[in-house]
Amino acid sequence: MYDTSKIVIGIIVFLAVFTIPFWYSQVSGDADEMPEIVIAPEAGDQCVEDVDYMRAKHMDLLNTWRNDVVRGADREYESDAYPGVIYDKSLTDTCLGQCHTNKSEFCDQCHTYVNVEPGCWECHNIVGE
Questions:
Q1: Would you place residue 35 in the very low, low, confident or very high pLDDT band (cuts 50, 70, 90)?
Q2: The predicted structure's pLDDT at residue 32
Q3: Helices marked H in the chain
Q4: Which of 10, 7, 110 is nearest to 56 (CA)?
Q5: Is residue 81 a contact partner of residue 53, using CB atoms and an 8 Å limit?
Q6: Spatial distance between the Cα atoms of 39 and 113, rounded to a whole number of angstroms
Q7: How large a percentage of the chain has pLDDT more than 90?
Q8: Which helix (H) or strand (E) holds 81?
Q9: By CB neighbour count within 10 A (0-12 exposed, 13-18 middle, 19+ buried), where does 76 fall?
Q10: Residues 101, 42 contacting (CB under 8 angstroms)
């Protein structure tokens, strides 16, 4: 009971140290800074799915594609957003080859921003990067 002030000070110090990343990003203005994404002009205006879906779930789509191709030899994908449109399930040929031709200006910008290192590049070597 006599250590109440020490415990309260300890809790305050812990909370201050624990929350430094949160309030620092708010004070510095980095919290609102989004990466500048460059979309290649030749990409057109249509992805395999709508933009909101791809922003949120592209990694799930690519994992599903990988499993379908490797385990089931299923190489065709019909888009839910664009019925009747068939795509080849290929990160290298479809995504990076036709639309997002500059990995460093497209993929790497967001992955660096969210501090994610996807395992895609262990197998998919991008020529010229």
A1: confident
A2: 63
A3: 4-18, 20-28, 51-72, 107-113
A4: 110
A5: yes
A6: 17
A7: 22
A8: none
A9: exposed
A10: yes
Residue 12: pLDDT band (50, 70, 90) is very high
DSSP single-letter state for residue 82: S
CA distance 56 to 75: 23
The token pair that represents 65 in the structure block:
């594609």
Residue indicated by tokens 């395999």? 48
Which neighbouring-strand residues pair with 76? 88
Q: How confident is the model at residue 44, as a pLDDT?
A: 66
Residue 86 forms beta bridges with which residues? 78
Which phi and psi angles does 2 have, rounded to 5°?
A: -80, -10
Angle between helices 20-28 and 4-18 (to 10 degrees): 50
pLDDT digits (tens, 9 = 90+) for 93-129: 888 888 888 888 888 888 888 888 888 877 776 655 5
- Cα separation, 42 vs 100, in Å, equals 9
Nearest to 47 by CA among 93, 1, 108, 100: 100
User: What is the C-alpha to C-alpha distance for residues 38 and 114, in angstroms, rounded to an integer?
Assistant: 17
